[in-house]
């Protein structure tokens, strides 16, 4: 198996066509087809479905595609690590951010990287926490912002912020408390719209609720932040979340956030990297900048409900 075969296969899947991939790769289509056939023979599995409409990955092809991407990413990182200098880092850094954090961190971080390190290309991926963990393990991303649930021992990690969670409803909702806060025991009795269990925030809520001898009864599971917002605005229920993903709606008076009494509900946001795959100089530079930007956002009050857990480092 050769690296060029991995590049060829990834290009075919990305372009959905042997002919388009051949043009991009500057290789004759019959030669490209032959390379794919050799790869399939070596693996003992069909990787692509070929039809008049183009090509699609088989189940084996989808699995192999993820591994091929990770291998090619690590090879490129190795080249960058050898070529770049420590005083002027350059190259591509892939950073994964959960949906519920991206609204607070993504844009300020993009701006900071462009200003501090113009020769670094930052690739941001917004996914569920469980997906980011798998991508970080495989090497498809270099860094990931994750939630510390006590099971991040496989990664090198540093705490970024502690985020308070609040009870949030549509403005004037039938589920809104009559006071300016709501006891946890009352909150869990109401219909709640929450991310699924594979989402980092949900296990944290469930654990705290159980520790208080309570349980959540009526739950609508929604993994999309956009759909969750729509369900809240339709007054299908309330939610327990940090303020950040719903900040715009709260600031515009569409939603209202209430402190929860009776138990402290928060989550620790952590920056993680692989213990087995070393970071390039560019990766280390972005790592330091994430810590610095997160700290600054907390101090300025831009990241509402968040308290910095790390000292800001100079970029």
Automatic annotation (TrEMBL):
It comes from the Bacteria. PROSITE patterns: HTH_LYSR. Keywords: Activator, DNA-binding, Transcription, Transcription regulation. InterPro entries: LysR_HTH_N, LysR_subst-bd, WH-like_DNA-bd_sf, WH_DNA-bd_sf. Residues 1-58 form the HTH lysR-type domain. SUPFAM superfamilies: Periplasmic binding protein-like II (SSF53850), Winged helix' DNA-binding domain (SSF46785). PANTHER family: NITROGEN ASSIMILATION REGULATORY PROTEIN NAC, TRANSCRIPTIONAL REGULATORY PROTEIN NAC-RELATED. Belongs to the LysR transcriptional regulatory family. This is LysR substrate-binding domain-containing protein. It comes from Noviherbaspirillum album.
């Amino acid at each position: 198996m050769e690296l060029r075969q991995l590049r060829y296969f990834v290009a075919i899947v990305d372009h959905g066509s042997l002919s388009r991939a051949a043009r991009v790769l500057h290789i004759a289509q019959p030669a490209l087809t032959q390379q794919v056939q050799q790869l399939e023979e070596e693996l003992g599995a069909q990787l692509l479905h070929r039809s008049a409409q183009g090509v699609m990955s088989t189940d084996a092809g989808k699995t192999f595609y993820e591994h091929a991407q990770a291998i090619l990413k690590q090879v490129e990182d190795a080249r960058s690590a050898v070529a770049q200098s420590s005083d002027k880092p350059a190259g591509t850094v892939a950073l994964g951010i959960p949906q519920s954090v991206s609204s607070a961190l993504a844009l300020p971080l993009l701006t900071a990287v462009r200003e501090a390190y113009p020769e670094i290309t930052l690739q941001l991926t917004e996914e569920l926490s469980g997906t980011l963990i798998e991508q970080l393990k495989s090497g498809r991303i270099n860094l990931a912002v994750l939630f510390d649930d006590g099971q991040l021992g496989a990664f090198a990690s540093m705490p970024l912020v502690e985020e308070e969670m609040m009870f949030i409803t549509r403005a004037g909702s039938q589920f809104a408390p009559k006071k300016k806060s709501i006891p946890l025991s009352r909150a869990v009795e109401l219909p709640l719209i929450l991310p699924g269990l594979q989402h980092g925030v949900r296990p944290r809520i469930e654990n705290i609720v159980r520790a208080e001898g309570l349980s959540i009864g009526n739950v609508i599971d929604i993994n999309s932040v956009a759909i969750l917002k729509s369900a809240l605005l339709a007054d299908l229920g309330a939610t327990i979340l940090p303020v950040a993903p719903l900040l715009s709606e709260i600031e515009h008076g569409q939603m209202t956030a209430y402190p929860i009494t009776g138990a402290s509900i928060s989550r620790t946001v952590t920056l993680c990297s692989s213990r087995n795959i070393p970071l390039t100089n560019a990766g280390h530079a972005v790592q330091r900048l994430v810590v610095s930007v997160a700290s600054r956002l907390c101090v300025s009050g831009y990241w509402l409900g968040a308290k910095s857990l790390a000292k800001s480092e100079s970029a």
